[in-house]
Amino acid sequence: MPQSLVKNYIHIVFSTKYRQDFIDEEIEKELFSYIAVLCKDFESPALQIGGADDHIHILCLLSRKIPLMKLVQEIKAHSSKWIKTKGPKYENFFWQDGYGAFSVCRDEVNRVINYIKNQRIHHQKQKFKDEVIEMLEKHHIDYDEKYVWD
């Protein structure tokens, strides 16, 4: 093929360090907008960003030019620096070291968008830890739970 044709929908999930409640409703809209700009800058446009106080979900179209690990690393680094400028209550903000990333088939994109949009409602019923374990098992990802949390 003379050109590279790629369309990879990726659902990325990561939490704040030690799952601390930093992403309150006061900052989330601005944070999610900032992360959307970062995704665009790295040629991986975000289709939906959402989360709860202690974690974030990003559904994006992964660039054919940027490895997933690099995209997540850049999002975390830039957004962490940015949020620390938003006042004293955010000065100790950090993201966890790792992340989860799951491929999404085209037929599931709208379902995942709605799932991400409704994270605050979803987490009234299910804890983040249970959500992550459910995702790992659904996608048949082998894991050792002692290395999933930091």
Strand content: 15-25%
What does the overall shape look like? globular
Count of individual helical segments: 5
Q: Extract low-pLDDT stretches.
A: none
Number of strands: 4
Strand order of the largest sheet: 2-3-1-4
End-to-end distance: 43 Å
Radius of gyration, in angstroms, nearest whole number: 15 Å
H-E order: EHEEHEHHH
Q: How would you summarize the topology of this molecule?
A:
Layout: E1 8-15, H1 28-41, E2 46-52, E3 55-62, H2 68-83, E4 100-104, H3 109-117, H4 119-122, H5 128-138
Helix pairs in contact: 1-2
Compact description:
The chain is an alpha+beta fold and 150 residues long.
Could you describe the 3D structure shown?
The protein is built from 5 helices and 4 strands; from the N terminus they run E-H-E-E-H-E-H-H-H. The chain has 150 residues and is α+β, with helices and mostly antiparallel strands. A 4-stranded antiparallel beta sheet has the order 2-3-1-4, with helices on both faces. A hairpin with a 2-residue loop joins strand 2 (46-52) and strand 3 (55-62). Helix 1 (28-41) runs antiparallel to helix 2 (68-83). The termini are far apart.
